[in-house]
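Quick one - first record:
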Amino acid sequence: MRINHNIPALNAHRLLNVNNGNSAKVLERLSSGKRINKAADDAAGMAISEKMKAQVRGLRKASQNTLDGISLIQTAEGAMNEVHSMLQRMRELAVQAANGTTTDEDRKSIQDEINQLTSEVNRIANGTEFNTRKILQGNDGPNSNTTVHKMSTGTSAQILGVAFANDAAVSGLGSLTSESLSIWIDGEERVVNLNKLDGTTNNSTKDNLLEALNNAMGNLGKAIFTDGDILEIKANSIGGTSELIITGTDRILGKLFDATYVEPGPTDPAYVFSGDLTVRGEAEKDLGNAVGSFYFNKMPEIGSTLTIGKEKVEFYDSSVGPYTGSNRPINIHNKSIEDIVKEISNLGFDGVKMQVDSGVSTRLLVEANAPGFTGQAIFLEGTPEEFVTNLQIGPNQGQGFRLVIGDIRAKELGISSTTPDGNTGVKGAAFRNVIEVTDGLSEGTIEYALDLSTEARATAAITVYDNAIVKLAGIRGSLGATQNRLEYTAANLDNTTENLTAALSRIEDADMALEMSEFTKLNILTQSGVAMLAQANQRPQSILQLLGS
């Protein structure tokens, strides 16, 4: 029998502490309802559950984004439904005006209603918004002002209106020789040879160029000169792709530098940045200098590249890992777009001079200051005829959906023109300069409605309205199909969220019945441990009896 060390009491005390610690853990799980409350509870399970949480939250937000996209489509389609009704009414009025029993006075009244309906079409197209974004006038989206048409990857930008600066073609200082244009619209190619376009005056050169272009394109599209002698080429159908590149070495556009931005993965590079390129020079002169600018409207992706001339810049993030490539690296970690543009401008490229635009800090000005930079990445200035936006319908990068809504303004539907002698596309139909319509929103915007003043023109207008109805029906049909697709997308996202949440619950949540049973056991053991510790502490008292005897 020993007095200095009470081993049974020490053992009872140790077990009591163990039971108290286990009871505290069980109480924590019962209080939180979670099996994993800290990394020490289950390190691997915690790592897995946190990744699952990110996916679940991303899926829920993606589902909301999808529903927002459906709401946008419903808003657009509702407005288009009203426009369709007005087109049907205008066609009905054209049929009435084409009737031989209708008098000139009757046609004037019909014309008044046509003008009002045409104005209302424009008002709806220009005024319909979703979350303050105008969705039916076409010139919204990441590249609302500019786009690059020919990328070095061979991917075409999806845009309809294009133009190029052709100072040499209209300068009147020489003839157009040894050049050809290759035009792609909706996947079809047309080649225009310019070696026969000799002209002595500006107008004859321009007219000959237009004639050659329109003859080559046929029904694919048309070319016109806009204000400022800018050549504009438009496809006849919304949603088609178009490219315009120059083949040859000099004359019209001369030697240009190649500028391309490419993201890793299946990203359409046409919606990454905006840029413009103009060329200064004269005919019969080797054009070695070219100036341009590129506007970054979002942060570059890791691994994406920007090629300028013969140099390539590659973007990386130092927090992910060091740069191991062979291009000119730009670290995007903790940097703004302005910082990146400034850093690119400080890179020294042979034959290229760069600087940040003093007016727009996210625009990079590029100038080829020496001959020898050739390429097909020619910027062609234009305005998209579609509203384009990206819906993030997945929880991860690269899981976006490109939503396109066609332009339904009266001019794009072919029922009005910005010029009184505009081309209706239908023989016999015409616009009149005394028939002005306005949308009531765009100040200073005047368009000319279809002329129904005669039986012949009213008859031709029927076909114009038929074409507009078919065109709008195509846009609405595409939106309807997209809405159906997004509804399935939302349902799938909700189903995936449910299943992933169930998997997360099996890893993270506590089994309350099991934990309560464990708590009851530990509670009994704790009470028993306290009682036994008291008994163990009393055992040395028996030694006093030996000492007393």
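second record:
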Amino acid sequence: MSVKRFLGGSALVIFGIIEIFVYRNTYEYNMATSPKVTILAFFLVVVAPLYSGIMILTDFKLFAYIKSKTDFYHSNRKPSKKDPSAVRRELEKNLLKLAYTNKGVLTVVDVSLHTDLTLEAAQEALEYMVKHSHANIKIAQNGTVLYHFRGILTDQEKKADKTLDELLEDKH
């Protein structure tokens, strides 16, 4: 049970107990004008706070049910602006742009510096690209993990490439 729940329930129980004495003194001095008002006042001032406090302290299941319904309502009222696949596509696009500007080679630090990702999230994103065969892992001489995007070529490399037919003729 959380501290807030405990304090709230305890406060309601204490308030209800105090109101029993206040209500008793009020009844003795005939401050209530009719029996209907007296009964209504008793339930509102004494029974309702005591009942609510006890239900909160005993972790009443109805409160959990009401909370789950209100959470469901609020989660459906405010849908997320982007679905996960759109976020993933945007991240892939940003990684490829960054890889293009860095000549096809990225490190976790590069991604973290140029995006709003943490180091852990940047590493997960790069590993996702490796898992889906968009990049290869290489190790630099100093031990840094490099992610090489093999599909990214410079303009010179694009002009110097051979056609598929030329490559097949060279093999024979």
